[in-house]
Amino acid sequence: MPVHAITPDYKGDVKDRLENFHGNQIVYVGWDHHLMFCAAFAYPLPPETPFRALRDEVMPEAFSLHPEWSKIDWSAATWLLDGQPFEPQLDVALKDQGIGHKSLLRFQTPDLKGYKGAGV
Amino acid sequence: MAAKKLNIKDKYRLLTRDLDWEFSYQDRNKAFPFEEFEGIKITDWSKWEDPFRLTMDSYWKYQAEKEKKLYAIFDAFSQNNGQLNISDPRYVNALKIFLTGVSPLEYQAFQGFAHTGRQFGGVGARVACQMQSIDELRHVQTQVHAMSHYNKFFDGLQDWSHMHDRVWYLSVPKSFFNDARAAGPFEFMVAIGFSFEYVLTNLLFVPFMSGAAYNGDMATVTFGFSAQSDEARHMTLGLEVIKFLLEQHEDNVPIVQKWIDKWFWRGTRLLTIVAMMMDYMLPNKVMSWKEAWEVYFEEAGGALFKDLARYGITMPKYADVIEKEKEHISHQAWWTFYTHGHAAGFHTWIPTDEELDWLSEKYPDTFDKYYRPRWELAKEMEARGERFYTKALPQLCTTCQIPMLFTEMDDPSQTCYRDSVYNGDRYHFCSDGCKDIFDDEPEKFVQSWLPVHQIFQGNCGGPGVEDILRDYYQMNVGVDNMDIKGSPDEERWKKWKGVA
Amino acid sequence: MSKVYIALQDNDESRYIVEAIEQDNPEATVIHMPAMIRIEAENYLAVKRETVEEKMGRDWDVQELHLNLITIGGNVDEDDDQITLTWNS
To answer: What are the tens digits of pLDDT across the range B50-102?
Structure first.
């Protein structure tokens, strides 16, 4: 059963439903094997945001602190969306290519192995 | 003729269960409405027995004596400016975590045991829970008194109860206890009385209290040992409850096992911050977290679960994962707080070279390979005048609420990502352990108040991080937070010690 | 075999309790740590009132152990004459 409660058919208040974010959705972005950043970042973004804006305007603020950020060859990078291989369409909105509320995007840059090649 | 002195068994019987009565005109189920919904079956409450057989008169006598001794030591500490005897001002930051993260849990325990102490049909259990409730209130009070002296001289201790309710990393301990208190009385007892107070308690107390002893903090040592004598009773209550439930009915065994699995996992996740404290925040080291885990869980817990095997109870699920994680979590956690130091109510720092070497020695399989490089990068950035503070907010685990900083144990450079979809929404977890907990009771955990999401919903003021720190968390920005280097704490310490 | 243990605050009273435990449990190991004395034994440990009284030089209630105790491991059984710790393994 979905909860062990004393009242039958107990339903919990879903704290993070989309409507609570005032027109934004949440997207998480993580750079695999680059643990200088201890966890994926969480971003509140309008669902209409084109992918290009996420990658080139939103992500750099935090990610550019990494010494390898400026060396990324985006044409060689691979992506996972919620665990599945994904090819981002740069000029399409997040919501129109399956990047929904609380989706997780992970990108991999196999030639860049982190600071001192240590996955950092 | 002089009255004969009662022996301990008779006195206990007269002053506990003989004060109970059979209801003659009310339905017993109405008086104890929470006893059945969890599926636990109790056939005979009279089989429950307090091993210490403590009655209220003895309780008051011994507790009063402990208090007199304890407060005399607090007075001496204060009068002698004991804060000057600590090893190093960095040490006080461990106390800031304790007061904001642990002391409020004692208060929640006080509330939880007061509630549970009313809900059990068995009078022996009710008496023991009530005593534990008073003990926990005592612990909040003595901790606040112990820390109050430090509050006169160091930052970050001034608003602990407000911070506990608001600050992002403190939602981890707060939600842990909220989960337990929102559960039924039997789950609460297995969660707190057994898993936390028996299985894991030494892993909380020994690091903090031995850490205090090794670092010249007499006030905390004294409070710690005084509280631990109460804890010995709590431990026996926890163990007694477990054995009682398992002996009452075989149907209880799978329910209890599931609770042990859940709460062992939640408890270990909660202890991540203690692991970090042991390995990174004590200038004089006691032992490594890895060593503490080996002694206090693998050995002590091993003996315990061997004892419980006769009931059909097995080691908690994912104990094997935790055994591997013991070599990683402290490093991952301190790195997280170091990189989020601008948003913490205590100071952070790069370990000294001697400390880095100690970590290499204590963690020969993991430190140099995965974690030393992070500190080399941090040193480079600090030397450039760009001390690393992260510029975005982290993804949090829906169950334990910790940032998703844990990694796969077969590839420790890979973040561990797990998720579930429930009623059309996606939820993320740091581990199989946390995912299992959500999947078992999603209607409970969809209610997680996740600080990062709450900030994005506009519920924590803002708009910037600094506004949130100052107005919502009520931190003194530029004083409570940031690196220890250049902090008011460090400046004052140097002045007291007459060093540059 | 599993270890039972008891840890006491390191103060003037505890020293007599430790002496009593050592006498009654010759196989036990006593470990001194800062501010704390930890005593371990395989499967069984007993703290006996009479022995403690002999060492301390005064009457002593088993329940007074609460004033010196830090922590314990094992199944507890307490009566007027002693407290024992056991594991059944």
So the answer is: 778 888 888 999 999 999 989 999 999 999 999 999 999 999 999 999 999 99
- What is the domain count for chain C? 1
Structural domains for chain B: 28-349+388-497 (1.10.620.20), 355-387 (no CATH)
Strand partners for C28: none
* Interface contact B51-C77, CB threshold 8 A: yes
Q: List the structure tokens of C44.
A: 């069984």
Residues 6+ apart with CB under 8 A from B361: none
Nearest by CB to residue B414, choosing from A33, A61, A102, is A33
Query: What CATH architecture applies to the domain A21-117?
Result: Roll (3.10)
The shortest CB-CB distance from B390 to any of A17, A24, A37 is to A37
Q: How far is B249 from chain C (nearest CA, A)?
A: 20
Query: At a CB cut-off of 8 Å and minimum separation 6, what does B459 contact?
Result: none
Q: Could you list the residue range(s) of the whole structural domain that residue C30 is in? A: 3-86
Domain holding C41: CATH number? 3.90.56.10
Give the tens place of pLDDT for each residue, B277-309. Answer: 999 999 999 899 999 999 889 988 888 899 899
Mean pLDDT of chain B: 94
Cβ–Cβ < 8 Å for A31, A63: yes
User: Between A12, A22, A40, which is nearest B404 by CB?
Assistant: A40
Chosen for mutation from B4, B13, B52, B63 (greatest number of chain C CBs closer than 10 Å) is B52
pTM: 0.94
Task: Report the C-alpha gap between B360 and B73 in whole angstroms.
Answer: 38
- Cβ–Cβ below 8 Å for A104 and B419: yes
